[in-house]
Amino acid sequence: MALTETVPAAGPSAHEGILRRQSLRESAARTYARSLPIVPVRARGLTIEGADGRRYLDCLSGAGTLALGHNHPVVLEAIHKVLDSGAPLHILDLATPVKDDFVTELFATLPPKLAETARIQFCGPAGTDAVEAAFKLVRTATGRDGLMAFSGAYHGMTAQALAASGGARHTGVTRLPYPYDYRCPFGTGGERGAELSARWTENLLDDDKSGVVRPAGMILEPVQGEGGVIPAPDDWLRRMRQITAERDIPLIVDEVQTGVGRTGAFWAVEHSGIVPDVLVLSKAIGGSLPLAVIVYRGDLDAWQPGAHAGTFRGNQLAMAAGRATLAYVREHQLARRAQELGARMLARLGSLAVHHDCIGDVRGRGLMLGVELVDRDADAGPGGVRPAAPQLAAAVQRACLDRGLIVELGGRHSAVVRLLPPLTITDEQADAILDRLADAIAAADRTTPGPTGSSPTTLRGTTP
C-alpha cells in the first residue's frame, strides 16, 4: 500500500479549518497539537502526510508506541484477520484464541527467570492504568503502603501514577535521586554519582531516624524518557535490585516506553541482567493500539477476584496487532538493529555537538535519543554545565517541523530534543533525520550568536 492510496488530502483550507475547530472545541489540556500544528491524513512507516499535502518524518512515533512505524503490513494483516474472522471485538477479560496467542508470544520474550512463574494482569488501555495496577498489586502483596520513586520520573497522569512522577508532591512517595550524569544531583557524575545515589537509598531504608518506613515497592525507569532521555547505569540498576531484594521490597520496572526493542534489547532490563518483580508494559506491546498489562512474579498474586478490573481489558484488535509486532521484532532482530543504528546516530549527534555550544549533552540508548540544549551565553555552573535552554529547544522543534521532521521535547526544563524513530528505519532515513535536525539546530542557533562565534553546520556538511 503506497502512502497515496489511502484517505485523500483535505487541502490547505480544510487543514486550517480542522485546526481552528480543534482549538475551539477541545480542552486547554491538549499538548501535542499546540507544538505540532499538523493534520495527519495518511501515514506509512516513518512518514506522515498532512491534510495540506506536506510530508513529515515522524520521530515521535506516538510517544514510542509505533515500534514498526505507521501501518506496518504485518500489523494491518493481523487486524484484518480478526475483523474478517467474525471474532468478538469486545469481550471483557474472557479467554480467546487471540488473547492466548498474544500472551504466549509476550511470555516468550520475557527474561526467563521472570517467565518461569509469571502472571499477567490486563489493565485499562493506557500505561498509567498499568502503573496503578502495579501499585495496588504490591500494596496487596506486602500489606505496606508507601512507595519509592525517582526524581525526573514520569509514570502517567492518573492519581497514583502522577504522584510517583517527578513533578508531583505526595507524602506517600519517597523521592530518590536518579543518576543523571550531565546534571548530577551530587555534583560528581559518572560512577561516583551513581554510587552516591545507591548509598542514599540504602541509608534512607536502614536508618531508623530517616523517617522512611519500608515501602510497598520501588518503581523506576531503565531510561527516563519524559525526564530527558537519561539511561540508568547498568551497575546502578543492579544495586537497586540488590537493595530491594535484600529488604523484601518489590521492584517495579516501568518499561512502557523502553520495551519491545527500543533500547537495543527486547526489554531494557536485559542490559543489566536484573529480573524485576513487576514489569509495567504498554505502548508498543499493542502494535499501535491501546493495550496495557503488568507481568509479575507468581507469589505476588495475592489479590482477590475483582480487586483490579476494567471494561476495556479485552481489546482483541490490540492483542492481535501486539502479537504481530512482538513476533516481528523478535524474528527480525530489531532490538539488535536498534542498538547498532542508535550507536551510529548517537556518535553523529556527538559530532554535531562539537560545532554548537548550545548543545550541552547528547545521550541515549538504542533508538531512544536525546539532545540537551543549553544557554551558551550563560555562565557555567558546577561541573561546567550551563542552564537549560527551553526557548531554544522550542525553536528547534519548530524549525524541525518547518523542515518536515517531527520531534518531541522533554527533560526537567523541556530543553531536551527527543528522537524516538521506528525500529524499522533504514540507514538512509536515519541520515535524513539527522540532517534535518542538524539544519534545524543550526537555524535556531543563528538567532542567538554564541560566545565563540560558532557557525551553522550539518552532520554531513550539507543541507537536506
Quick overview of this protein structure:
By secondary structure, the protein is an alpha/beta fold. The protein is 38% helix and 14% strand.
Describe, in plain words, how this protein is organized in 3D:
By secondary structure, the protein is an alpha/beta fold. It has helices at residues 12-25, 32-35, 61-64, 73-85, 97-109, 112-115, 127-142, 159-163, 190-206, 234-246, 269-272, 316-331, 334-355, 390-402, 427-446; strands spanning 40-44, 47-50, 55-58, 119-122, 147-150, 173-176, 217-220, 223-224, 230-231, 251-254, 278-281, 293-296, 359-365, 368-373, 405-406, 408-410, 416-419. The chain has a domain at 75-176 and 206-331: Aspartate Aminotransferase, domain 2. Helices cover 38% and strands 14% of the residues. The chain has a 7-stranded mixed beta sheet with strand order 4-12-11-10-7-5-6. Strands 1-2-3-15 form a 4-stranded mixed beta sheet. A hairpin with a 2-residue loop joins strand 13 and strand 14 (368-373). Helix 4 (73-85) runs antiparallel to helix 12 (316-331) and helix 13 packs parallel to helix 15. The longest helix is centred in the C-terminal third of the chain and has 22 residues, at 334-355. It is globular and about 55 Å long. The model is unreliable at 449-464 (pLDDT under 50). It comes from Streptomyces gilvosporeus. Its EC number is 2.6.1.76. InterPro entries: Aminotrans_3, Aminotrans_3_PPA_site, Dat, PyrdxlP-dep_Trfase, PyrdxlP-dep_Trfase_major, PyrdxlP-dep_Trfase_small. Pathway: Amine and polyamine biosynthesis; ectoine biosynthesis; L-ectoine from L-aspartate 4-semialdehyde: step 1/3.
